[in-house]
Amino acid sequence: MMNFKTAGLFCVLMSSLPLLGCAEQKPLSNQEKWQKFCKAYEVASYYMMSDRQHNVEREKAITHVEKLPEGPQRDMMIAAVKAAYQVPKYDQLEDKERAMDEFKQGKYQSCLNQPH
User: Fold this and answer.
1) What CA–CA distance (Å, rounded) separates 116 from 113?
2) pLDDT value of residue 25
3) Which of 35, 36, 46, 59 shows a CA-CA span of 20 to 30 A to 28?
4) Does 16 map to a domain?
């Protein structure tokens, strides 16, 4: 059984846990930055196919991605949007979800294998 002093200390420690993440973080290496991008690329691929399956126009999707800074990352994203729109659009929700999952598969690893 906790006494008031122990309970108070416990509350202070628990309330300070979120602050541990506020400490200054070391800058990411180029490899770490690329890994972070690749994870975002994988997630974005899922949503690109979601847009395709939910009637978002191809040009609208490309225009959105073109707002990214120029470079290999933007080029990869544009290529992924174009690839998503090569996949048929399905009517059934189950088919749409399967297309979204399948389109996302392997994107992280293929991104890691790209020169950067």
Assistant:
1) 9
2) 82
3) 46
4) no
Q: Is the pLDDT of residue 57 over 60?
A: yes
Q: Is the pLDDT of residue 47 over 90?
A: yes
| Domain boundaries, position 38 | 30-112
Those residues with Cβ within 8 angstroms of residue 99's Cβ, 6 or more apart along the chain or in another chain: 49, 52, 53, 87, 88, 90
Global pTM exceeds 0.85: no
**pLDDT averaged over every residue in the chain:** 86
The answer to whether residue 107 scores a pLDDT higher than 80 is yes
Q: Residue 45's closest CA among 88, 114, 90, 106?
A: 106
Distance of CA 51 to the CA centre of its chain: 15
How many structural domains is the chain composed of? Answer: 1
55-89 burial: b if 16+ Cβ within 10 Å, else e: ebeeeebeeebeeeeeeebeebbeebbeebbeeee
Query: Between the CA of residue 93 and those of 53, 54, 105, what are the distances in Å?
Result: 9, 10, 19
Given the structure tokens 């609208």, which residue do they identify? 60
